[in-house]
Design a protein that fits this description.
The complex is a heterodimer of chains A (774) and B (262). By secondary structure, chain A is an alpha+beta fold. Chain A is 64% helix and 7% strand. Chain B starts with a helix and ends with a helix. The chains are: A alpha+beta (774), B alpha+beta (262). Chains A and B meet through strand 3, helix 20 and helix 21 of A and strand 6 of B.
């Protein structure tokens, strides 16, 4: 009784007072849209984890202890004929000067030829000074520079490539500086220099901030295009511009409400929530089932008002339960760890509920305004006997009904193959890979990683419980050996620590004799060397590798890839080394590479946990819907099948299971189950109307379901595919992934619903509960 | 009438040239008062180096200085380190020449080596502190253009405010000094970087009269960009100790006389 009032009174009310409902909805929409100017954007993946999270607290502590910078840009300068010539070196000096004057650049610690500290001995004089304060004037000076560069292991692979064709300038940024803006400024500076040199700007901040800027630009382009395509597809389906607009407004209104609420509550828009419009547009397409049924009913009765109310009575239940299932898939995210994941879950769940409320109010109200003449013309084609689509769908279901064993056997085989594929899935995340292969950012990263030690940076902090322990020859040699061990890893390009300074000074103080390129054997000597070094070097030179009480040393690990996996390998190697060679020191990872590893595994774990929880929640909703565990299980099958096949495919093509994919898995749940809910619900309703439950009646009911509500399913899937196929043209790979994933998921789950569900129902008809009553 | 007119013009023109001359003159006198008082000088210097995060390092040393010639001329410095403890007995010697690079030597006791150290950049850090060599031993007054901006009160004293712009070849764009009119000591200095942003500030935190010489006994240099700062306290300041010329030699670097360094 209560359900009756809640469900039908809203529809009746909307049909009786359409103007009131429309004006009310638009007024709420206007109210939510007033929040939009307050929108704040936050694309920093760092903020995915709260400031109080262990990794951020620890990374901040490491940054503070060693005076490190969160963000460092790398400018690569390449000259195919070698950079060690007067013109190129002159350019390097000019470019460096300009970069030092750029706002947001931490000028004191920019590191490159003109600024890097060089420890050398000339004519018995120890020199600790910038390597190349001014450009060399003649060949002799260039020769001396070349000798200095290649003799010093601190420089090779860091600021000069082994082949002498690439040099790099490391540009730390002040806190809060925008990486993209500074990268753009650097590109302006280098564009002023003419000549054969090529310039590449790389580094985490430029990738991150460029991604942030591009992301919003893409959303601004693709959301309207997707919207327009959906509109066009709908128009082709229903031949009524007014109703097509109504259907689109439904999605737009829900987007405005959800984003308005998000902004109004003071949440910034993160990478994840920026995808909300597209997600909601996708979820909104479910209302197509209302249109589908309405057109059938209207053609049959010719009474618009009655058709609306009857339609809502018939599809109301599946529409409500699909909404519930979708919402459940996102609501579980609210219970996860990561704030943006929780916000995203809440946002989409709210939007889904809003969409459904609109389905029962705004949409029926809009139907009232639809022109009768146009409707009559358009609905004429809606006949399950003659319509081409319906005939085709009936044919699909026919396979399932008459060849159930073949269908199920094929399905099982596919599942087995898919599971093999899933076992090959590699969990990884790489922000640089979010850009296309030929993009400026990815090219820069590739060029620099090929030539030098690597653009990604991790730290291994050696911690002792005793002051001055780092100065002992034991600790020094241990760190040195650990570095050599780490350098064996394929993705580690270079490592660097306080030991490298000590060895360098030892050699220089002994007449530059290579034999002395070792750690001295007394703690006193090491202490005095380091003091000598700190007397003339930049303060940050020593600070960045050792703490004040010489209790902690910071080992820099340059990585040649932004794969989160690379840092994981480093950590494993450190642990293995430590257990093979015990020492009273602790080794803890830090730095941006470590952060990326942690946040990405946290997001992935959260999403994975959410995914499993959502599976359970969706099954529970199916049970609630059908009041039958068995029916729920059968309806669950297409979902499980779709998900398995997609992930199996990902495993086979070698696509990493990354952040965007993990986010999609939640969407896939809520969406892939929709078709089954509609199919099962309508099938049981049809069957109960007939009264008979023999094989013949079941088969007929299945074929009818495929032809009539099935048309709604196919329309829904087509709309989806149309809208999301645009994203295949995006220039950021996560959006391409989203597009491809959704197109695949829709097609697959529609197919599975139309073929495997009839097969399952036929095979299990003895086991399923009798009586289609719902 | 005409005479009065010319007189007015003259008076109007006068300050422009006179002020620049005045400013350079004030800077010269200030340098003499700050870095050249007495024939020689000795002090125990305790430096506290503090990083942004609050971590501290200590440097404790005895500094000896002797002037050669007039204020603004050559000087010799001898430094003996007490702290950090593993550098005890390390000594450091500088021959300072206003118009050319310094000569520097360092004695490394653990390997018993006297090492000559190149002094290519007088703007580099002095023993890892926020003070540069130039801040400790002075910058040639003639290498900057000085301008008297105004006079104003600073910390209860009357000060000249002088802006000094390097004539070139250095890593800062401008220095503004507040020079106490009475003692001629700099009470405050602000250094601006090449972007024109305030980079470092110097303050004289305590001034004491020692044997008739007003002496800055506590001073701080703050690096605003890195958040690092160094406080230096001068204890047991003595003038005209009678340091002999041959003291500034390799022999004493290796083996400094106890009574001088204590």
């Amino acid at each position: 009784m209560f359900a009756f009032i809640r469900k039908f009174s809203l529809v009746d009310f909307s049909v009786n007072h359409p103007w009131l409902v429309v004006i009310f909805v638009l007024a709420i929409t206007a109210a939510f849209s007033t929040q939009f100017p307050k929108a704040q954007i936050d694309t920093n993946p760092k903020h995915m984890l709260p400031e109080t999270s262990d990794v951020r607290v620890w990374n901040d502590e490491v940054d503070r202890t060693f005076g490190l910078y969160e963000d460092v840009l790398v400018l690569g300068i390449v000259n195919k004929r070698g950079v060690l010539n007067r013109e190129t070196l002159g350019k390097i000096v000019r470019i460096t000067d300009e970069i030092l004057k750029t706002k947001g650049v931490a000028a004191r610690d920019v590191s490159g030829f003109p600024t890097i500290t060089n420890v050398s001995a000339e004519d018995g004089t120890l020199k600790v000074a910038p390597l190349m304060a001014e450009a060399p004037k003649d060949e002799a000076e260039i020769g001396a520079l070349e000798k200095t560069l290649f003799e010093n292991p601190l420089f090779v692979d860091h600021i000069i490539s082994k082949d002498g064709k690439t040099t790099a300038l490391y540009i730390p940024l002040e806190k809060g500086a925008n990486g993209k803006e500074i990268a753009d400024r650097i590109r302006e500076i280098t564009a002023k220099e003419k000549g054969e040199e090529e310039y590449y700007v790389a580094g985490d901040p430029v990738a991150r901030d460029t991604f942030g800027a591009d992301m919003f630009r893409l959303m601004a382009i693709f959301a309207p295009i997707a919207g327009f395509l959906m509109f066009a597809a709908r128009y082709l389906m229903f031949r009524d511009a007014f109703l097509s607009i109504a259907l689109m407004m439904d999605a737009m209104i829900a987007i405005v409400w959800s984003l308005g609420l998000l902004i109004g509550l003071g949440f910034p828009i993160h990478i994840m929530s920026s995808m909300a419009p597209v997600f909601l547009m996708a979820i909104a397409t479910d209302s197509i089932h209302i249109f589908n049924e309405f057109y059938f009913r209207y053609r049959e009765s010719g009474d618009k008002r009655a058709a609306i109310i009857d339609t809502m009575r018939t599809v109301g239940r599946p529409v409500r339960y699909t909404a519930l299932a979708t919402a459940a898939g996102f609501v579980v995210l609210i219970f996860m760890h990561i704030v943006p994941v929780r916000v995203f879950g809440g946002l989409i769940a709210f939007g889904t509920i809003a969409l459904r409320i609109l389905s029962f109010s705004f949409i029926p109200a809009m139907f009232v305004f639809a022109g009768e003449v146009k409707l009559k013309e358009a609905s004429a084609g809606e006949d399950i006997g003659t319509g081409r689509t319906s005939r085709f769908l009936r044919g699909l279901a026919h396979i399932g009904v008459h060849r159930p064993k073949v269908v199920i056997a094929t399905g099982v085989l596919l599942i087995v193959v898919a599971i093999v594929g899933i076992s090959k899935i590699r969990i990884n995340n790489n922000m640089i890979d979010w850009f296309k292969h030929g993009s400026e950012i990815r090219t820069a990263d590739r060029v620099l990683n090929n030539a030098l030690g690597g653009t990604s940076l991790g730290y291994i902090v050696a911690i002792s419980d005793r002051e001055d322990f780092i100065k002992t020859p034991g600790a020094m040699n241990y760190i040195k050996d650990l570095q050599r061990d780490l350098e064996k890893l394929p993705n580690v390009g270079k490592t660097f620590s306080v030991v490298d300074y000590v060895k360098r000074i030892n050699r220089v103080l002994h007449g530059d004799d290579p034999q002395y390129n070792v750690v001295p054997d007394s703690k006193e000597t090491i202490g005095q060397y380091l003091f000598l070094f700190s007397m003339s070097a930049k303060p940050s030179d020593l600070d960045s590798v050792v703490d004040y009480p010489f209790q902690r040393a910071n080992i820099w690990v340059q990585l040649k890839t932004w794969d989160a996996k690379a840092m994981e390998d480093v950590i494993e190697a450190v642990d293995a080394y430590k257990s093979a060679h015990p020492i009273p020191m602790e080794f803890k990872p830090a730095g941006i590479a470590y952060f990326n590893l942690v946040w990405n595994s946290t997001v992935l774990n959260d999403m994975l946990k959410g995914f499993i929880l959502a599976l359970v929640a969706v099954l529970a909703i199916l049970i609630l819907n059908f009041r039958s565990f068995k029916c729920a299980l059968v309806s669950f099958a297409p979902l499980v099948f779709t998900v398995l096949v997609i992930y199996g495919f990902l495993g086979f093509i070698g696509k990493d299971f990354d952040m965007p994919i993990s986010v999609l898995s939640c969407l896939s749940l809520g969406m892939a189950v929709d078709f089954a809910i509609h199919f099962m619900g309508r099938f049981r309703l049809r069957l109960s109307e007939g009264g008979l439950e023999d094989r013949e009646s079941i088969a007929n009911a299945l074929l009818w379901t495929a032809a009539r509500p099935g048309k709604g399913i196919v329309r829904n899937a087509t709309l989806f595919a149309a809208a999301f196929s645009v994203m295949l043209l995006a220039k950021l790979t996560p959006y391409i992934t989203v597009g491809a994933f959704i197109v695949a998921m829709m097609t697959l789950s529609a197919l599975m619903t139309m073929i495997t569900m009839p097969a399952l129902i036929i095979l299990m008809r003895g086991w399923l509960p009798k009586g289609g009553s719902i | 009438m005409i005479r009065r007119f010319i007189g007015t013009v003259f008076v109007l023109l006068l300050p422009v040239t006179a002020l620049a001359a005045d400013a350079t003159e004030i800077m010269k006198k200030s340098q003499a008062a700050f870095l050249y008082p007495g024939i020689d000088f000795k002090a125990r210097v305790v430096m506290r180096l503090t990083a942004k995060g609050g971590q501290e390092r200590t440097r404790e040393l005895t500094m000896l200085r002797k002037n050669y010639g007039l204020p603004g001329g050559n000087q010799k410095y001898f430094i003996y380190f007490f702290k950090p403890s593993d550098v005890r007995d390390m000594t450091f010697m500088v021959y300072k020449y206003p118009a050319k690079d310094d000569d520097r030597w360092l004695f490394v006791p653990s390997i018993n080596l006297v090492q000559r150290i190149a002094a290519s950049d007088s703007r580099s850090s002095f023993v890892g502190s926020d003070f540069t060599y130039e801040d400790v031993s002075g910058r040639d007054v003639e290498s900057d253009e000085h301008k008297l901006v105004k006079d104003e009160a600073c910390g209860g004293r009357e000060c000249h405010v002088i802006e000094s712009v390097p004539k070139g070849g250095t890593n800062y764009s401008k220095k503004v000094s507040w020079i106490d009119k009475a003692s001629l000591l700099p009470m405050k200095e602000e250094y601006y970087d090449v972007r024109g942003e305030l980079d470092r500030t110097f303050t004289s935190d305590e001034v004491m009269d020692v044997e008739g010489h007003p002496t800055v006994t506590k001073r701080t240099m703050k690096n605003l960009k890195s958040g690092h700062r160094t406080e230096a306290a001068f204890e047991g300041v003595k003038y005209d100790v009678g340091i002999k010329d041959d003291f500034f030699s390799e022999r004493y670097l290796r083996n400094p006389p106890k009574e001088l360094i204590q």
